[in-house]
Design goal:
single chain; alpha+beta; 8-stranded antiparallel β-sheet; 5-stranded antiparallel β-sheet; globular
């Protein structure tokens, strides 16, 4: 159970309107507690609907597989991989997070955290605390199989091979899940976002399976009823206020997609019009003009992009198109990661939990696949210029007409250019040629902590940097790793010490009050930006250490010398008393580190770069340390690997200026 102080802190983070909305939800929960236990919710008989899948007339065709056969003829390995993956799924073996081909049981145990080996009780959702790991396990490990991405994998495999084993396996798992998950009970009905993701996957799987005979009439009626219960439950409980982030987008997208496909659901047209109206408002009000989203978390940007694209796709197919404003904002949201990725592997920032909407054959962070989908959906030459290859995902959703834009594209300029993203506070300092050995790219973070009063997915990373050289990551943001299972690790990966910035007196810039809650937070202000032929320079300050008994202001100036191939950091501390200062640098896992006094040699892919730390620093490194926790990189949720962390420590009194130089080979 959460402590009273946690609830009080959470309450203080809410607006008056949000408190009213949440009180309404609480009142609804009181009623639902009785309603669900008595079975007083829409039943299958009153709902009616088509007697069989053969009688069902979908609102549209979700997939356009016009170019799919040609793709698989030229990419036999992709087809083989799909069928092999589907065979594992049919055998109840799934790969997700830290689990590889994990056997989920026969029948599948849909309530179990198969990583922590914990099975939560089937309680009313009002009594299901998804944050209580000791009782319910890690909710993300329970939820992931029930998002039903793998049902789409089975349906795709059936469509490609016409092998009945895949369609039958999908039908069996539909039946198994519905039988094991009584409406209103257990973890899998607990979160409206989970319902939104699941119903989108149900629509996608059913659209591919509609020509099979695997789903018999009795099962169809249960699927149809449960699909409506998803819509009914989500639309009563849209996330309000401080939770109106990716959760709200996923919930609205789920209702829109379901009501676009199941057009004979009660009030389907009104529900989808309302969902689209709310999504239009979210896109206009929350997404930044510079293309970043205010959660300040790149993983969640990819997540939200998938929802918004699928809504646009379904809207066009059903005569309810999104506005030009929506399209323009969506294009800028795709352009943001496209610009970041030119310098090398996409830098992480903020939380990343591997969430995605549909598995159509490409990894959710495959930048070519992501941008190709955006280019085809929006018919954007701007996005198409960044795409380097044809991808399977596009061939599932878009026909030859829309994919033609990829064949007609002009290549993006290979010259790396420095630029700012003024709304989100990120700055790119760059020089050289994309993908070439001379490429230098530095991402500087002088933006806000995160979205709204919670900033739930932000990290204490003010004035941090990420560095790529020659198309390879050198200095990194270590990632996220965990939300619920390992509390010390959740804490560490959000701290200031886990980022390439300055830490004062072993204190975080922003105050961590819970796994998704912050108290006092650092506010950043960019004070300078200049880019010339031979250098790019940026400066910013934050007030996160004004909370100390002797208030401290931290200013960082970052200068990239182009021809000299040198990065200069100048950290200025404005204080009166004595403070301990720690400069942290987190290296990519494949970077080898040698220390020679205050000079650190960074060997990466045959080159040696030199990091020269401030004079009088005491330099230490950790690699894969658990006491203290340091020296880790988490590329995926629940996966971590050793990577070297460098710390330069020194004590100063009053104002101090620390100079650090990174000389590139």
């Amino acid at each position: 159970m959460q402590s009273l102080s946690w609830y009080l802190r959470r309450l203080r983070a809410m607006s008056a309107a949000e408190i009213v909305a949440r009180l309404g939800h609480a009142a609804s929960d009181v009623v639902d507690r009785v309603r669900f236990s008595k079975g007083w919710y829409p039943d299958a008989q009153s709902l009616g609907g088509p007697a069989s899948m053969a009688d069902f007339k979908p609102g549209h065709t979700f997939f356009n597989t016009q170019t799919l056969e040609d793709f698989f003829q030229r990419n036999a390995a992709a087809k083989h991989q799909l069928l092999r993956e589907a065979e594992h799924v049919a055998a109840h073996r799934l790969s997700f997070f830290d689990l590889e081909q994990q056997f989920l049981g026969d029948p599948i145990d849909w309530q179990r955290d198969h990583s922590g080996d914990k099975r939560g009780p089937m309680r009313l959702i009002q009594d299901t605390n998804y944050r209580d790991f000791d009782v319910f396990g890690d909710c993300k490990l329970v939820w992931e199989p029930s998002r039903h991405h793998h049902l789409v994998t089975l349906a795709r495999a059936w469509h490609v091979s016409r092998d009945a084993q895949f369609a039958n396996a999908a039908a069996d798992q539909f039946d198994s899940w519905i039988s094991a998950n009584r409406f209103g009970y257990g973890m899998n009905w607990r979160s409206p976002l989970e319902l939104g993701i699941r119903i989108i996957n149900w629509v996608a799987a059913l659209d591919l399976l509609k020509d099979s005979d695997a789903i018999e009439p009795a099962l169809w009626q249960r699927i149809y009823h449960n699909a409506y219960l998803h819509v009914w439950e989500i639309s009563r409980k849209y996330s309000p206020g401080s939770s109106a982030n990716n959760h709200l987008v996923g919930e609205l997208a789920g209702v829109f997609v379901a009501c676009s496909y199941f057009r004979d659901f009660p009030a389907a047209q009104a529900l989808r019009e309302d969902a689209l109206r709310r999504l239009e408002a979210w896109v206009a009000d929350f997404a930044y003009d510079d293309g970043c989203t205010p959660e300040q978390a790149i993983g969640y940007q990819f997540f939200v992009l998938q929802f918004l694209l699928i809504v646009m796709h379904c809207g066009e197919a059903t005569g309810l198109s999104v506005s030009d404003t929506y399209k323009a904002r969506l294009e800028s949201m795709y352009s943001f990661p496209a610009k970041l990725a030119q310098g090398g592997p996409l830098p992480m920032f903020g939380d990343q939990d591997d969430g995605y909407v549909l598995n159509l054959g490409n990894d959710q962070y495959d930048i070519d696949a992501v941008l190709a989908m955006g280019a085809c959906a929006l018919q954007s030459q701007t996005l198409a210029r960044y795409v380097n290859r044809q991808t399977e995902s596009c061939c599932w959703l878009f026909g030859s007409t829309k994919q033609a834009i990829l064949a007609e594209r002009d290549s993006a300029s290979a010259e790396l250019k420095s630029q700012t993203f003024d709304d989100s506070g990120y700055c790119l300092l760059q020089h050289g040629t994309a993908g070439a050995s001379d490429a230098l790219s530095v991402l500087f973070d002088c933006g806000p902590l995160g979205l709204g009063s919670l900033a739930a997915h932000g990290h204490a990373d003010a004035l941090s940097i990420a560095v790529r050289v020659g198309g390879h990551a050198l200095l990194i943001d270590p990632g996220t790793y965990d939300y619920y299972t390992f509390k010390p690790w959740r804490h560490y990966f959000r701290t200031t010490a886990a980022h390439n910035t300055l830490c004062v007196d072993d204190t975080d810039q922003s105050e961590i009050q819970g796994p998704f809650l912050w108290g006092q937070r650092a506010e950043c202000v960019r004070t300078a930006w200049r880019t010339e032929a031979d250098y790019t320079e940026v400066a910013a300050t934050h007030d996160g250490y004004q909370k100390l008994s002797d208030p401290v202001m931290h200013t960082r100036k970052v200068t990239l010398q182009h021809a000299a191939r040198e990065l200069q950091l100048v950290d200025t501390i404005d204080a009166r008393q004595t403070h301990t200062l720690d400069l942290y640098f987190h290296c990519a896992p494949d970077c080898e580190v040698d220390i020679e006094g205050i000079t650190v040699n960074l060997r990466l892919h045959g080159d040696t770069h030199q990091l020269i730390l401030p004079s009088e620093s005491i330099v230490e490194t950790w690699r894969g340390s658990e006491d203290p926790i340091a020296g880790w990189h988490s590329p995926r949720y629940h996966i971590k690997e050793p990577a070297t962390t460098i710390r330069a420590r020194l004590s100063v009194t009053g104002e101090a200026v620390l100079r650090t130089v990174l000389k590139f080979a």
